[in-house]
Amino acid sequence: MRKRSWVAPTAVALGLVATPVLWEITRFPVFYLVFVSGILFWAAQATSWNILSGYSGYFSFGQGAFFGVGVYTMAVLFGRHGWNWLFVVLLGGVAAMLLAAGIGAIAFRLRSLRGEIFALLTLAVPFILAAVVRLVDVIDGGQGIVVPVPAFPEAVAPFQRFYFVISAVVALLALTAAYLMQNNRYGWALFAVRDDEDVAEGLGVPTFFHKMIAIGINGLIGGMSGAVVALNLGFVSVEGTFNLRVPLFVIVMSVLGGRNHWAGPLVGAVYIHTLQNRLADAGFDGWSLIVLGTVLVLLMILAPDGLMSRFSRRPWQVSAAFVLVLAGLAMFGTWGEPVDWLAAALAAAAIVAFLPGRGVSPAQRGVSSVGLGESRAFGEAMKTRGENWTPEPVVTATDVAKSFGGVDALRGVSITVHEGELVGLVGPNGSGKTTLVNLLSGALRPTSGSIRLAGAEIVRLPPHQIAHLGIARTYQIPRPFSSLTVRDNIAVAIMFGREPKSLAESRAEAEEFLMLVGLTDLADVRPEQVNLHERQLLEMARAMATRPSLLLLDEALAGLNPVEIDNAVAVVRRIHGSGVSIVLVEHLLRVVIQLATRVIVLDQGRQLAEGTADVVLRDPAVVTAYMGKESHAPGD
Amino acid sequence: MLRVTDLDVFYGEAQALRGVSMSIDRGEVVSVVGSNGAGKSTLVNAIMGILQARSGTIDLDGVELTRLAGHRTCAAGVAIVPEGRRLFPYLSVKDNLDLGAFNKDARDHRAETVDRVHALFPRLAERGVQMAGSLSGGEQQMLAIGRALMARPRLLLMDEPSLGLAPVIVDEVFDVIESVRGSGVSVLLVEQNVQRALDVSDRAYLLTEGRIAMEGDAGSMARDPEIRRAVLGV
Amino acid sequence: MTELQASIFGALTGSLFALMAVGLSMLWGFLKIINLAHFAMILLGGYLTVDLASRLGMSPVATILITAPLMFLIGALVQAGFDRFGVSELNSLLISYGLLIVTVQIVTNVWTADFQRMSPDINPLSLQSVAIGPFVFPMPTLLAAGFGTVLVFGAHLVLERTYAGRALQAFGQDRQIASAFGIDHRTLGLVLAGTAGASAAIAGMLFAVGEPLTPDSPFEWIGRVFAIVILGGIGNVTGTLYAGVLVGAISGLVSVLWSPSAAPLAVFSLVVLALVFRPNGLFPRKAGH
Q: What is the ipTM score, two decimals?
């Protein structure tokens, strides 16, 4: 998701150009209208599919279901009962949207549902639907339905012109939705879900809600587009509607064009439809599925990111190849027809795009130096503390226990973290530290016990609400959103914070958190290009961007060299200085000694000791827990 | 017998071992102690071939383990008792033992090795058909050790065998380590329980933040306050 | 057909579907590969059976002597490809989907889209039937049930009783540690995928003997087979057999009580319920006696 500043204005310019172009096309010979209408149909289907599957990563094989609902709604209500066709187009969309909502309500609620099982479920839905449609006489009953030509205004006669116009409207709706979502919070929620759903939920993104929006739009547009197509088919049958063509084509088109970009499915539609058209023209009908299947296999292995991302790496070369071949063939005029020229130009562009070549430029490295000055916003967060300031409790866990199957990871631990504290949570292997962090952040639910945040019970709340109430966490192995830049990782957390903010505002606000951890130089780089230490700093910045009252740092210093550890300690100090309470789970006890105001020792799921670091770590029970029973007297 | 030279091991980006060098002679019991996250398990996994080292060598009696594919290390004479036991939970006790002897050499002598393991762990003989996942913690640890012995190793790697066990069972485990040593098998013991480990070992290494910070014979290290400072920071 | 006969008939056919499901289930459970191309191999196996029987006059059942080794090789080859390119679980679904589409189209081009059926003089079994008590069963159904049950049980026995089978189970339960004891995932993977391929060839033969085949047949099988895989528990061989029989019986019953088109709906609802309440399958293994 790299945001190049020239893409947006170019897209808008293209949109402004497209409308009169499309209007001109309506004056073209019928052959071209039919050709372009085909592209528009597939663009609508593939784009709506991509809004769910490409943006959120929830792969669906079930596009045929939404398409089929739209087709049959038109066939039955208009074809058989003569309702107003325009009204029925909307109804078809709504019906498919309801089906989508039903699927989502079941599938997205199941916590155990992995992506693969969701995909397989969606594979089954069209078949079930086909069976029902065939079964129920009121719908089809196995006979098929005739769809007459609707009445349309004289101004857009003949039928193909009229059909082109309504196809264009639906396609534009789809593309607009995809474009807007790519640049606003709805799309960004989906990108976060795709990259790491658990982390997104923990940062405050209401994942269920956004997935439902995505599948709803998928259904709505898929259904409307299906209803429109029915007008062109003349006769509708179960076999012709619920086959594999639609699901397969939308997948290949989106994978080919690129699933990350709103225009990807459109580009894929242009390619595949042109290919299909030329193959059919040359008499190779029987080869089209072979070619498509092979293209899918090769793409998934060699270039799963698709054309648009390759295009954005060398836009001038690809555009030049396309324009040169097209213009050249047009000028010579002797070989083939315009559609052939288009096919050749597309092929040339694709070859240039997929050529192996220089990757994205490497990140500018530099040891991130802390000491870049206090950021202003944090000055505000520091409360003026009077003489009689007694810190309030921020979070109180009472008698929390957690068992997994037969294993008791935590057996009744009670801790309170107060304002301004930096609590070190330590203990030998298997003592329950990470389990406790997972319980406090809401990633797990305790088997028993209560957890109160600012007085309110949070045990039954979903993680994104707990994030809004003020608890944030980092992960021991950093889990950044891999398709977003460093800055955008932080921006997502701000966008979905307590007060929703726009993308632009969030990006601006991300500056202060970049400064807080010292990542300003690496802001526009992807996480895969920075090193482990920098990724851990990103974890902290992103968690801080939710403006928590309590920050849980889970082994944030794992695997660092001594220089990096010192830097990280300085950053943690700055974070603490801004007024946030911290629970620090750490193995490096020398770091805990430097940072913690209070230390809690866990052992085998129970609290063993509590107090200041130097006292607790000399406690004989703690020494035994760490080192085993002493059979020789220690040196001191 | 085992010689590790200048070993660097990474978990993705994180460097877990930095230039680690150590050795074990035939028949020795050597401990590697240190706080959590110091890299002890990483060392064991690297020797076993579960993790690939980025640089450095691991040599066992002239065979360079670092060049072998992971699944061939066992045949070269090393067996592991993994942290957390990691038995095959839905297979029986007998099956877990039999599978320890998967590599060809061990398979040929399986019958006699089984007898020896049963002699060492009579309770395992009794529970032959019981599923491994249903055993108690102590029995699982015994089975994990037995499984490793079935591979007829020259070097036995033990990763935190006392983890999560009651003190009485821990006694039994360390008794077993004593008898293993008696049978001529070398042992590399990674343990959090420093005192116990040093009691049963000939020599020891202290691992801190991926580096060897101290080494020497177990007796003198046990009396050294530096160890406690390294683990507890005070 | 009475409800009882329909249920029993369905249960018998169910063991054929269980045979189809078992290869897929083991690949998914042990190797984390979801291989839709498995259905392509069943289809090819069926078409080759028809072809070889019609052209060379072989007994249809005997064609597996050729098709099974061939599919073994193809299965192993596909697995080698997945291994070489380090394909993830979700991507394996997509790639194998592509392979399936390609195969279906090739079959259409070579053999046409018409129904393929062996004539009774090549396939005398299609005319025979056996009376058991008050019920009459066509021979192909009994053959399918017999082969299906025997082979799935055979797979179970191999897994439980042979050393290599137990090594495979260990590999499925803890891949890393199994490898640490010398159990090599690459070779095992190839053998497993090859065996799944061979089972696909046999399933194809059984279909060809009993039903007419079309290139689109795989798409009728996919729903039911995956329902069996999920209900039986991914990687659980005996569970797959029970689930196959259960799904078959339910389909048969629903077909008679309501309509044949309603059977998929009933099975699908069962799968959704199972995913909500028993995500590990209806017949989970317990770590106990």
A: 0.91
